[in-house]
Amino acid sequence: MSEDNNKKQKLLEVKNLHVSFFTPAGEVKAVNGISYDVDYDEVMGIVGESGSGKSVEAYSIIGLLQSPGKVMEGSITLEGEDMLAKSPSEMIDYRGSQVAMIFQNPMTCLNPVYTIGNQLTEALCAHDKSISKEEADKRAMEMLEQVGINNVEKRMKQYPHELSGGMRQRVMIAMGLICHPKLLIADEPTTALDVTIQAQILELMKELQKKNHMGIIFITHNLGVVAEVCDKVSVMYAGKMVEQGPVDDIFYQPGHPYTMGLLRSMPRVDAESYERLIPIEGTPVDMLNPPEGCPFAPRCEHAMKVCLQKMPPYVELGDNHRAACWLRVQDAINTQKEAQKKEGTEGKENE
């Protein structure tokens, strides 16, 4: 397939993905029918609280889903190739070169008994058998410089425990990008960092994304990070995508009560006066026994009888902006009735 044809299709397409974990207590539907796509040169944020299924769907994409987890149905295609049809050995070749992942905690992801240089060049040598050790070392040092690490020759010989948390996070980013993947999955890569280092890491990722023209899935629970780096956002709750849309629409015209709750619980720097943060009441649903209807209904202050009985359909709220909420369904019905009433009134006047 030519590069021009590649650019015409989406980089990544996830359709109706279901992932379950079969435990002694029963089936846990960790991901329950989500769909989204990521384009070239695009950053998509996946937002939601712990346990919403953000990391599970990421592991499904990259082929790292462990037993007792299993993809039950749906499809994942990267540049038109079926990722779920690939064998474990094919996925080993694919990981790193085509799709890479930065994991949550760099402190535990780096091997403490190998040097930084050894761990960086390992990825290069695994995907390019003809590369020499000298060339691999050179490219590893260039990558470390790109992620803002100084004195790279010294760093290559150091062990993870000799680096700070921020530097280890930069090493993890370098490791993810060293083979120039087309898709990068960043699973809360700044959670363990202080605010100043976090800002530097986000700026760095934006620069590298523009330079390498890759797509990024940015998994986080931090809406401030989403506003900083993402082009569009998918909001997850209890294994479902409850709202999707461009980042500006999600922040300024949220359509789902859960999204509104997340925004209300986040401090705003543009607030004109002191505002009390409002937490989302209640606890997340039991994924072993999820409700029949909307999973957020037990915690929603606007919940109606239908919310507890039936999952709402997606309602289009704008250009590429949609939310699954019965309130929005009611709004759409009312808008349609008003339009019909207006047409009827205008028709009488014309007579």
Q: Structural class per helix/strand content?
A: alpha/beta
Q: What is the CATH class?
A: Alpha Beta
Q: CATH topology, which one? A: Rossmann fold
Estimate the global geometry from the Cα principal axes. elongated
Q: Biggest sheet, strands in spatial order?
A: 6-7-8-3-9-10-12-11
Secondary-structure element series? HEEEHEEHEHHHHHEHEHEEHHHEEH
CATH superfamily: P-loop containing nucleotide triphosphate hydrolases
Q: How many H/I helical runs?
A: 14
pLDDT averaged over residues: 86
- Could you estimate the helical fraction of the residues in percent? 25-40%
* Overall CATH architecture: 3-Layer(aba) Sandwich
Rg over C-alpha atoms, rounded to the nearest angstrom: 23 Å
Overall tally of structural domains: 1
Taking the sheet with the most strands, its summary is: 8 strands, mixed
Number of strands: 12
* Spans where pLDDT lies below 50 across 5 or more residues: 1-6
Residue fraction in strands: 15-25%
**What is the CA–CA distance across the termini?**
60 Å
GO molecular function: ATP binding
Membrane topology: Peripheral membrane protein
Organism: Muricoprocola aceti
Keywords: ATP-binding, Cell membrane, Membrane, Nucleotide-binding, Transport
What report would you give on this structure?
The protein is α/β, with parallel strands linked by helices and 351 residues long. The chain has a single domain, classed as P-loop containing nucleotide triphosphate hydrolases (Rossmann fold, 3-Layer(aba) Sandwich). It contains 14 helices and twelve strands. Strands 6-7-8-3-9-10-12-11 form an eight-stranded mixed beta sheet, sandwiched between helices. Strand 4 and strand 5 form a beta hairpin. The chain is elongated. The chain starts with a helix and ends with a helix. The N terminus is likely disordered.
